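Re: weekly structure request thread

Next one in the queue (537 aa):
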Amino acid sequence: MSALIGCGGVQPQRVLSFSPFLCTHESIFLTSKQTVYGPERPQNQGRIDRSPPCSELCVVCRGRPPTQSFPSTAPYANMRNVIILGGSYSGARAAELFSQTLPITHRVILIDRQSHFNHLYLFPRFGVVPNHANKVFIPYTGVMASPGRSSSAPSSKSSSSTTEETESSRSGDSSDEGGPTRAQCVFISASVTEVGPGFVEIDRDLDEETLGASVSDDDDIISSGREKWRRRRLNWDYLIYALGSTLPAPLLSPARTKVEGVRFLQAQQERIALSKSVLIVGGGALGIQYATDIADLYNNPANAALRPENSVEGKKKITLVHSRSRFLPLYKQEVHDEVTRRLDELGVDVIMGARLALPELEDDVSKQPLTSRRVESKTGVLEYDLLLRCTGQKPNSQLLKKSFPDAINSQGYVEVRPTLQLDSCNTKYADRMYVIGDVANTHAIRAGHIGWNQAGIVVQNIMSAVLCGHREPSLITYEPSPPQIKVTLGLRNSVSELLPSMGASETQVKMHSDGAVDAGWIHTWTRMGVDAQDPTI
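Done, posted below.
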């Protein structure tokens, strides 16, 4: 065991990896420092299959984690839990990596309120353009890539409660002797109601098999709970908190199943189609995307064939109100200039440096009455019949306040160490808790690709601790990358500011006019290991 990378002061090897999730309607990649377990590991401790990636930025090959197999050394009864809370970009990536690297002594449990991965960057596009809503809800089956179980309260196509078992046939899941060689993977569709020292509690009962592998040094915490808790609590040896932030109103779906999510987007499409004047408040990427997509679809004659049949005749009046004097101020002036140019080209009325005293309205777009309303602005009275509030994200940190109040800052974000461990004085548990994604105060921008890259750091650190046993692991630290973005400016246009290559230090701004109306959704399904032939699954 002395040669294990990451133990006893030996530093893990670094390689370059790619994130397929950027703030965009299209899946693209950027470079980030990432880690794998180095080649010095003895053969009987597992091997790494690391094929060279494509020379191009291939959506299938780039970002694929190394595969690693471990000997079967422990019965399922003694497995320890690595629990991931939140299955969005950061949580899903962590689950994918763990499913291919954790030894059989452990299992990875992914818990998310929704039955499917929600590709949120496509919500604005498919909340406007009809006939694509199925494509943003992706099954987790490709992410959880080893033998395991899906314990899902809502099934993929209904709201009924089910528990289903799924077996993976991917190579590396079984040894030559027929036994499993990788960690068991479990997906649970449920809401988390409590996060405590050594345990999590969810909003529904679990079966005995799912509960049965809850074995750790903190069993007394679980057993001391009231009986009604027993079937709703899981203990953890390592916890990854990836619950992100509450979403702006147009993205804030109450859906827990794919069917409900599709209905949410379809209802939004219909409301937009029937409106005559749309007021969009918030000039960040989300507000810009809604404004330009609606204008391009309904006010551009070239896109008439894409409109729903029930849309009102005539052009829509679209107004975008932004509280600042510049769009996307973290980025270069060229980005602001291109956003402004496209908004003007598409006929969107823009009011900068203004805040509106808006009436209390139903935030759910589909439930707003299509009646004419008026609001005062610094340029005069604005009339509208549909309001899109594209502001108001708040970190989902409330579940940590009870047991780890010192880790929550005044803005509600969770403080983390450079290793992405929870920064709390309760080190007995904080050393085994990691926080990633939008909810973590890492001083990086809050975007899907950032959380995706943070997941790799956390997986490396937990794997170092798992493989080192009682020895002190060598943990690596997270280094934020420069702010990068790609924003759509209509159905085919976009502007991006990205690093041009892996070794570059200066970002470049580029304009594009050849984007796909369907936003390249197939690339994301393929990247997540799911067959895209039937997007209704």
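The mean pLDDT is 81. The domain at 261-392 is CATH 3.50.50.60 (FAD/NAD(P)-binding domain).
Next request, please.
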